[in-house]
Structures are given as structure tokens and as C-alpha cells.
Records
---
Amino acid sequence: MMSHHSPYAPPVCLPNLEIQQAAQARQDQLTKPRGSLGRLEDIAIRFAGWQGKVCPDVLQPAISVFAADHGVSVEGVSAYPAEITALMVSNFLAGGAAINVLARQLNAPLQVIDVGVAHPIPQPAVCQHELIHARIRHGTANLRHQAAMSVNEALSAIHLGREAANRQIDLGANILLAGEMGIANTCASAALICYFTGHAPAEVVGRGTGIDDVTWQHKQQVVHDALARVAIQPPLSPLAALAELGGLEIAAMVGFYLGAAQAKTPVLLDGFIATAAAIVANAMEPNSKYWWLASHRSQEQGHQLALNFLDLEPLLDLGLRLGEGSGAAICVPMLNLAIQLHNQMATFDQAAIPQS
């Protein structure tokens, strides 16, 4: 058997603290008042620890977008029908979605992975990206009334996510971003966040794609019912909770985050759904969160509570709620600027400026 710590993989190492201290010492010698670049200094120091280099390499991001459908969509918790998932995957393949534009701007490879789309995916006239076919089942079951998937299906999705992370790392990526597509996935994400953090549905359930007040109240009730359904069972392992309340693309993101941390590669977390997956990954392997950076605070109301639970401070708040990995992608240029400031600024000695 593998370790009791996490049944899914080897343990996660911590970032190199000695190198971080050396990077901090360098920051303190740069030609500026100490600490005057604020969080940009912390970012550079963290990447030094992650890469094991006092002056870290510029970031080469890679993005994997996982797509799957949710049985709970029959409850009418989204502003869109389930068929939209397949159509949006087609849009990803054609290069027309927000994450495609951002990936092109970042020169980042983009993988599109079908983990459990329920409907046929139309083949676009011109394909910019190949679809990775890894469908475990045609969407999950309705988590309000039954387990979303079996434990083995959740494990299969975790394995697929880990493979996706390793593929991107093998191609030269040194920071990973995960995106998702799945109608009703904020409902599953809210259920997971409530389960793991203990917050009530009224605190965590948001408006997702932009639902009205009546639908929002109904969505809270659906999550409440799902939580009540699992509450009468014996305490669940993190994997069992993921199978009961999660989604196939969320489970794949769990594997993606675990695989990245095990490969000592930092992850830039996206919004609400990404953070729900991160909470599950953290429950399975508590050291994995030391390899994560929170990109932004989503407009989804429970996102800040989820970030607080992981003790993560988001870099930006731009009122985003798109998903797809878009919020994470937007942060990459800022991270590279932080690294270049750290690497290229002169020290006081180099500039022959006396330190006060």
C-alpha cells in the first residue's frame, strides 16, 4: 500500500527554504527601500524557493482545460443548459474562447481534455487544438440524490489530471494552470467547499453563470440536500467526498494539482472551481498547498472563504467569474515582471550607492 498520507502518490516535498532566505537577502540589497515592491518581492522569493534558484527562471506557463458535465444540471441550477458544455469545448478547439486568447498572448501550450462531457462535441471547421479524449463517463449523476460518481471513477479522473500535469512539465512548463468547463460545476464546487470547510450553503453558493434570486435560493437548497444526504453516512475520506459531491473535471484538477506538487512545479490557481479542487487536493496531501499561488478573487461569493481556508491571499480582484483558467492566465505577466525585477535590478554595491 502507498502511504496513509495520500493514497494517490509519493509525498510532496516542501519548497527550498534555504534558497528562499538567500533570495530574501538579495531583495534586501536591491536599489530600493526594503520591502517597497510589496508582494512582488514575495512572489520572486517564492519562485526562488520553488525552482531552487536564488534568481529564478522566467516562467513558461502551460494550461490544461478539463471539461465534463454534471447530472445536477437537471435541477436547473445554471442559467445555461448542459448542452453548452460540448459547444464550449468545440469553441476551445477552434481557438475562440477567452482562455485561447490568453494562451496565445502568453505563448502557453493549451491542452483541452474531455473527462466526462455528456453530449457529442461538434468538430470545428478549423481546429487549433487537438481534443484529448479521456471521457470516464457521460457526465456525473445528480449529486442532490446520489453519489456523483464512483470512487473508482474519481480515482480515474485524478489519474488523468496527474498525467496532464506531467505531460506539460515534460514539455518544459515551469508553472501550471488548470481551467475547466462544465455547466453546473459551481454547484458541485460549492457542495465540496461547504463539506470541507463547514460553511453553510448560504455563505458559499454563488450565482455562477448569472442566475436570478429564485434560482439562487433553489441552488442553495440543492447543495443543502446533497450535504444532508452525505451527512447521514459515516465520515467520508477526501476521495469519497469528492466522488459523492464533485465533478469529473474537478477530480481531474485535483490530480493535476497533486501531480504538479509532487513534481515540484508551482501552480497558479484560478477561481472558485479551481479552489474547490485545491481544497480536496489539500485534504489528500496537505503539503501540496505550499506549491500554489492564488491568482485572483472571483466574484463567486464563497471564493474568499475557500481561499481563507487554504490560507491563500489572491493577487488580484478584477471582478472575474469566467473560469476556464482565465484569471490565472491574466496574472502570469505580472509574475514574470516580479521575477525580472528581482533578477535584473542592481544591488546597492553594484550601483555604488551607500545604504542608509
Note: The chain has one domain: 61-334.
---
Amino acid sequence: MKYKSTLGGIEPVPFDQAILEGFAADGGLFVPETIPRFSPRELQNMATMEYLELAETILKKFIDPEIIPADDLRELLNNSFAGFESNEIIPVVRFGSSNLFIQELFHGPTLSFKDIAMGFLINCMDYFLARKNEKLSLILATTGDTGPAAAWAAAGKDTLECWPLYPKGMISEEQERQMTTLEADNVHPVGVTGCKNGGDDLDVVVANLFGDGQLKKELKLSSVNSINWCRVMVQTIHYFHGYFKVAEDVGEEVVFSVPAGAFGNLCAGFIARSMGLPVKKFVCATNDNGTLYRVFEKGYLSQEELITTCSSAIDILVPYNFWRFLYFNCAGDTELLNDFIKEFNEHGLLRFPADLWKQFRTGFVSTTISDEETLATIATVYAQDAYLLDPHGAVAVAAAWNCQDSWSQQDKVVCLATAHPAKFPDVIGQVFHRIPGLKLTTTHPSIEAARNRFHHLRTCSYDVLEPALVRAIRTRL
């Protein structure tokens, strides 16, 4: 299996090169030459596998044994998930007696679904770099959860310097402290002020740095945002895992409701379906920013003003993994994809041809969920089942309720809960102020421990971020 660019400007490369480079040299995103597919018999054999065995089975389809031998792959997986709090790694719980299930993706070290793929990605990078006796600078933009996951996974690794960039004041204090209180000399979080468009502004800086081939080489840059193929690849696993947990028979179609921002998680779901997973519908659950709602329900991608919401991790205006998804739906037509990207970059608007729109929205439904609906959903679920959702999981549940006419009452619906509620105490506090007589606080030992540690933090104005970052990275090489 080799990997090519969505923009078509490079020759295919092996898995290790694709992972270490992050972005392709032409500025595109890496994708596999083909999407492997499981037969019904293979799916039947996978149905009883625990998560790690399932992960190994799936990843072997994408990683040649010459790149990572089977024993090394198994060890990398075991090490990547050793710090998870649940023995199941990703538990699936039923909501009451209904056909709605919550898939808990937040049992990793930073209490976010980003831990699921990040640990394996960074362990792979470390594995490849140690073999080459090389070092890389990881630079990434975060709207709350990616940065902590990358910082924790990279901490203490001699092969990596990690630079998480985040919009100062636009993520929770708990998320910020997960990055800034680490005692790791190779982790350098940067709080950036003046980000009018939040994390999207930071994505521009990252893209500019990667777009300068000479600078990328000099600074030894790579990325672990979900532009990195490994992130999307590993996220396909939890769709298979969730499916086998709830389906009574292999072949039964299941609905997945996914809180959507940069589209990495949903892109992984699409790839899982393309690999043969029986998915009836994907619910693309967005907040008031609604970028992906406009894509799937209106037929256009547009650049709008950022709306700050209580589901901050999906406050994203340009869902960059959508280009990967569109590449597959354009049958790999890189010339067409280049034209689409150029049009969007020049005009901030891209209207899709009717036939293409009809094709890629097949099996997808989307809706927007307001902050009011998000808070009300958290309260309703807790009142009915004493189960506490985070705001992003609440967006997924509310969207599933809003879109339930798109499937039958007998169909099982898996809602992805992408973070632990302890990361959002202000939001949870707003919910329980509405319920007379109820007093509840949500905490987690790792969150509380971070309150008593020093911040290790650089701050910078967005206006000077790019040159300041270049200078700072040079001092660490």
C-alpha cells in the first residue's frame, strides 16, 4: 500500500514517509492508493474481537509489514492504549431502554477522542525517527482537544519537539492546563491572541509554513492535526468497534451521529463504510457555525464569520478533511479538486455540481444544534438516565433526535461522545443552574491535579505569529 496526494503533484510514497511528512510536498493531503475492503466473512470473524485485536486487523490493511512488522505493530498498539482508563478502551453504553447508544471516546489521558489516534500516530513517528536517527518539529493548531492529546503523547520523546498553537481565551481553562502544566522540555504550547476566526486563523499559519518547502525542510516540520493520514486511519477503528458492540447480526445497518468540525472523524466513518461496514446513515452534527450543514443540506461550502459556541472543539469554519472526502467522491480527479480548492480560496464560496452533491451526500444527513439545544439535551439526558454528556456529545445526541425521521425506530443509533464533561465545567454549570435543587459538579483527578501546577506557556499576537514561531523553532533544533 502506497499513499498519494489529493492534489496529484507527487509520486506515491510509503506509509512511513506519508506519516512523517504530514502534508504532501505539493500541499495536498495523503490518501491511500486504494481503500481496502472487508468481505462479509471477514466482518463476521471480526465481530467478536476486542478493540486491540480489531485495531491490528484493520491497520494491517493500510500498513505493509515491511514498514511495521506484525510484532512491532502489536507493541505500538499496546503502548498507545496502555494509559486508557477503561479496559474496553472505548465503552458503548445504552441510553435507557432505547435504541440510542453513547460511544465513549474519552477514556484516554487527556479525556478526549483525540487520544485514540494521537498516541498511535506519535508512537509511530517516534518509531520511524529512532530508526532513522532523525528529529522532527511537530506544529499543530488546536481548538481545544488536539493540542493536549499531542502534547501528552509527545512529552519526553527525544525525537520530537511539539508546538501546539491555540486561540487564547477560546478554549476552556481545563484544556489549556492540559498543555501548559506538562513538565516536558520538548512541549511548547503557544497561546495566540487576536485570532478573529479562532483555530482557522492558526490553520492558515500552519499551512503557510508547510507551503514553503525550503522552510519546512530547514525546520524539520511535520503535523499531527487530522490532516495527517494516520489520524483518520486509526479513527476508522472505533466505527467498526461501535458497530460490533450494538449490531445483533453482522449486516444489520447502524446509524452514527458525529459532532463535526474539521471532518476528520466523519471522513474516517466514510472510509469505514467504504471498507464494507454496514452504515445506514451518518448524522453530521454541527453547532451554530454550520459549515458542514451547508455542505450536505444546501450544496455549498462557504467562509462565514466564526460563532463562539459552548461546543468549542467544533467551532471550525473550514473543514480541511472535507477535501480528502471530496477527493474520493471525485474518483481521484486531482485536477477537478484543485479547481474546487482554488475557487474556494479565491471567493470563499464553492457551489457543488448537482450530480456530485447528490453523490457525496448519499447516506449523510446534517443539522445544526444551537447552544440552547445543547444545554437542554445535557439536562434531558441527565434527568432521564443520570448520564452526563459533554457539550459535543450533546450536539451528537440532539442531532440524532432531530433527524430520527431519516431512519426507522428499530434502527440502532450510535452517538459519539468525544470528550469528558469535566473538561467543560462552565458549560455543565449552566445546565445544572436550570434544574431546581440539583447540585452536581463534574471533576476528574487529572484535571484537578493540573490546577496546582505551573503554566509553561508562550503567548504571541496573531499578527507576528509566523516569524516568531520560525525563530522559536530554530532555537530548538
Note: The chain is about 45% helix and 15% strand.
